[in-house]
Amino acid sequence: MTYQCFDLKVEDKIAHISMNRPEKRNSMIPSFWAELPELVRQIETEHKARVIVISSTGPHFTSGMDVSAFGSSESAQSDPDPEKNARLKGLRFYDNVRYLQETFSCLERSRVPVLAAVQGGAIGAGVDLITACDMRYMTADAFLTIYEINIGMTADVGTFPRITNLLPEGIVKELAFTGRRMGAEEAKARGLINDIFPTQDDMLESVMKIAEQIASKAPLAIYGSKRMINYARDHSTEDTLDYVRIWNASMLQQGEIQESMRAAKEQRTGDYVDLPSPHKRMANSIDE
What we know:
alpha/beta; Lyase 2-enoyl-coa Hydratase, Chain  A, domain 2; 2 domains; 6-stranded mixed sheet; 3-stranded mixed sheet; 13 helices
C-alpha cells in the first residue's frame, strides 16, 4: 500500500516508519492522521514486527499540524441550515480533536515498543507524537517546542497528559507558557530523551541496533513489560502489583522462559512465538 506521508520498511522484525515530505517540513496534513494508525495496525496484524522505529527526512522531524487538519468552512457554507450547523460546531470540534488524539494514542497502546528518532525540530504536534513513543533519541541540533501557545491555542492532541509524566511540572509549564525551544542537551539532562547523536545517520544506526536488541527478546514478555510500565505510571503501586500478578497468572509461558534460557546457553537468538494479530474491530476501536 502506498502512503502519502510515510514510507514503511519492515526487515528482521523491525518496522521503520519514515515521514517522507521533507519539502513541507513533514507537516501533518489530514492524510497523516489516518495513515499513521493504519500503519500501526498493518505492522501488528500483517508484518508482526516486534518493534517500531519512527524517523523523518529533511531539516525537521516535523513542523507539526497543518491547519487544514482542522477542516475548512466549506461544509458550513454549503449547509442548508447554517444556524443549526453552528450549534454543532463545538461537538464537531470535540470529535475532530478526539480523532486526532487517537493517531498518537495508538502508539502508546501498541503492543510493541515505539522508538522516535528526531532530527531538527519536533514542533507543536511533533511533541505530541514523540511523547506518545516509548523511547526518544535526538541529533545534537534537534529541539522540541510546544509551539501552540505562539498561535494562541492550548496544545490538545496529547502533549500535556504525557509530557507531565516525563518532565517536572515547572519545566512543562515554562515550555507551555513561553513556547521556547528545548534543545537536545537540555532534553537529555532532564530525562526526556534517551540519547543524543552527532548526525542523523549516527542516530539511525544506533537506534536500529537498539531495535534489534528489542526484537531479539520474547514478544510476549516485551508486551507485558510495556503494559506494566504504562499501567504503573497511571496507577498506585498496590494496584500495579495486583495487575502484574493477574497478568503473569494468565500470560506467563514456561515455554518462552525455557527457550530464552536455552538460547542464552547456546549463544543464539531465541525462537519465540509472535503475538497473534489483534482482532480488527479491537485494533480500530478508539475506545480501547
